[in-house]
Sequence to fold (417 residues):
Amino acid sequence: MARKLVVMKFGGTSLATPERIKRAAARIARQRRKGWDALAVVSARGSATDDLLADAAKLAKHPAPREIDALLATGEQASAALLALALEAGGTRARSVTAHQIGILTDDNHRGAKIRAIDPRPLRRILSEGAVPVVTGFIAVDARGNITTMGRGASDKTAVVLAAVLKAKRCEIFTDVKGVYTADPNVVHDARRIPSLSHEEMLEFAAMGARVMHAGAVEWGKRFGVPIDVRSAFSSAQGTRIGAVSPMAGLDRSTVHGAATDEDWARITLHGLPDLPGRAATVFEVVAQDRINVDMILLNVPQGGLSDLSYTVLKTDLPKALANARRVAKRLGARSVSFDERIAKVSIVGLGMQDHYGVAARMLRALAKAGINVQAISTSEIKVSCIVREAEGARGLKVLHEAFQLRRRPKALAAGA
Fold:
């Protein structure tokens, strides 16, 4: 009878010291003793990635993305080798492997590469030999053999993708928190751990700025039905199960399940854009050509044949996005371009929100009562996001957490806990 497979991903804080690496190795060994096959995915240890980026900045003002990817890959490779050594020392056969060796193939978009293909045969071979593959997360290769990376936090994505390809029974994400909370517990001290979430809810949480999981990982989990457990690397607590119907969904008492704030975005505005068919399409076609991700879009009511078009981009993309906006503004005859880095996005999320009236009104009223001005609004079936001043982001999060009573457990859960 074939053994069940679990994919176990360990974040940087989980591997920051030799003692923590031994703890991770012991977790893997316990799964093996229970009759499971195990595959580990690792991030760079501690602050290794930030340290490498800081060193690069001291050497080059505008470092080449290809060389940055080659540099950052060394962090994950060190983690993989060290965890494999710890497993072997404890009596568990292990082998560290890189993206070159297991064929994770991406496009050539350095720092944000997209997966194109995976060859699972090398990993199946290692598993069939009774060993634990220890895979470098976050990194891959393009068709020319260049090292690529898939964006910060994308070790989660590596883990979920491998779980999908290898048909693992589950994927465990070990981090420094005990699961997904109703808000960032570092900001909202009475935030509550959520026992389970749907993939859709977690996808919105990740997009809203929750740092617990990479959005791309959740998207792959949703696409292939991979159950994901977010757990603490430092305790045996149950954590949060992603991929189940939330037990909070459908309760009249609480349709909003969490809130988040994100200060990683900047807003760009094209002023005086001619109000003609196809102008907005042209703007975002040019943006897409430069591989710039856009989050929120706001087009105001035209006046005198002109309108203002605003959109948000990641602050890391701002220099490139500004140059892009100025080119397209000149091409389309817009009057001017401005930008604002001092913004934050505050959001609420919950499955079934579209079936309840007044959620957005309640959110906006709570922010207004707190004296927080809303600059833009974006909605979907399960979330509402508002742009506010950066200085108001953390306070806005606390206001919404209180307004929707997220610190309290829904009665149905409390009774069954």
